[in-house]
Here is the input.
Amino acid sequence: DLEEALRLQPDGEEAEHVIAEMERGAWLADCLSALASGRAAVVPAEDAPLRESFKMVPSGQKMLKEDGEEAECSGADAPADASGDPEQPEGSWECLCTAVAEEDHGMFLGELCHGLHLDGPLELVPVLKGALAHALCLEAEAKGMAEVVHSMEDATQRWNKKLRAMFDIDAAVGLLSEALALYESQEFADAAKELDESWLTGSACYADQKTSMDELCLWSGLGLVLLRYGFTADEQGSQEVHHLINKLSTNSKEVLELQLLVQRQIFGYFSNLGIHDPAPAPARSRKAPGGVAEK
Here is the structure.
């Protein structure tokens, strides 16, 4: 295997054995692709031997294939970049990316060795091994973090479920009191006034106006309180609270009085409600803005 091959001395047939084992390892393709990230579409390498073997000659000379031909892309004879620095050939990245995209491992190793001024591909083993270890650590950390987040979400859901199950008269009084404080705030009063005045020039019917009121109460009033009592800060959470408070109000005078107080506070802001059409008669089962029942 690879670990056994790396313990061999990198010369002669043993060196070729190391390179072959490196190429057959799926991890090498991942490391090589990471080194050329962002420059070419990378297709994961399959377990296969080198397409073309090569040999390194002294630095500054051309890379040769085993048959003696010049490598198709050689950083040594590539044109210099705009700065005129021959150490940073203009085509080196293009050749590197082409090699990665085409899974031409021989070309890739040759270009990489030339760019790093290495005498041979075996000198890449330590850095590639380290890069692989780092990549595996990052993947493990990401996986671990995802598991932690998922675990936290599950715990939050269980806690919220317990909170909803424990929602009693005291909890209802607390929620309604907090919501009432928000509805009495200047911030909510200003937002309600702006909405109410917009109905003078519009043609919204009563149903549309009530929908706008519900949305305002959810996002600027009740919705800010729901999470603390185990409910979601959306229409579903508002409906759940409405159902529970409506049920508790039949057995608690305090809850009932707070319901009516919240309702009067909200409707007091909207003098133009139903200005374009008559409002339907309020019913016990209807939900008033703020998650409380109309009386």
